[in-house]
Amino acid sequence: MRLLLIEHEQSQSSRLRRQLRERGFNVDVARDGATGDVKARSVSYQLILLNRLLPQGDALGLLQSWRRAGLSANVIVLTPQRSTADEVRCLDLGADDYLSIPFEPEELFARLRALARRRGPIRNDLMRVADLEIDTGARVVKCRGTLVNLTRREYALLEFLVRHRGEIVSRAMIWKDLYDAHDANTSNVVDVYVRYLRKKIDVDRPEPLIVTYYGRGYMLRDVH
Questions:
Q1: What domains does the chain contain, in order, with CATH numbers?
Q2: Torsion of CA 139, 36, 210, 213, to 10 degrees
Q3: Which of 28, 32, 11, 134 minimizes the C-alpha distance to 73?
Q4: Average pLDDT, the chain
């Protein structure tokens, strides 16, 4: 299930993204309303978590404009200042649920499951590059129709590269997206996982899908 988290507070967004990914969600993050609006309108998300009090941008204005534009993703509004009047307003403007910060992760997951049941079966998001097929809903990868067994981090790396196919991505970009941390071993760790992934998807290819740009990073070729 693909989810957009619009949360400006760094520690909160990092913690939520990690917890959601551990539960199998594919999570994109936006840290301001403008970026969140672009992502929400350009990607088919099933769920959006929206902070009510964004420092820049009107969260409820975004919500209202999405509904007027026909955006069908379920939206949960997160707020540190809960009131009955505010909850009613959010729901009237098109929110599907309303959750006070701080909250226990299990409460959020229960609400997400309830929304998913209400929504019915969700179409898997299939992505294809060359002979690779990536089912981001089931987190399953096939190469030439054969299942490729990837670890959680190998899969996360592949999905990141596929979403940025045709673009050179730096080691720092990969590390930040996948691990929410930064230390002196960043480059070495990313290089190790790229090497692991290559052994599983680039074997016996006349031209590798993952290309190294020395001093700059990596790129997954956009091959149809």
A1: 2-119 (3.40.50.2300), 126-220 (1.10.10.10)
A2: -160
A3: 28
A4: 84
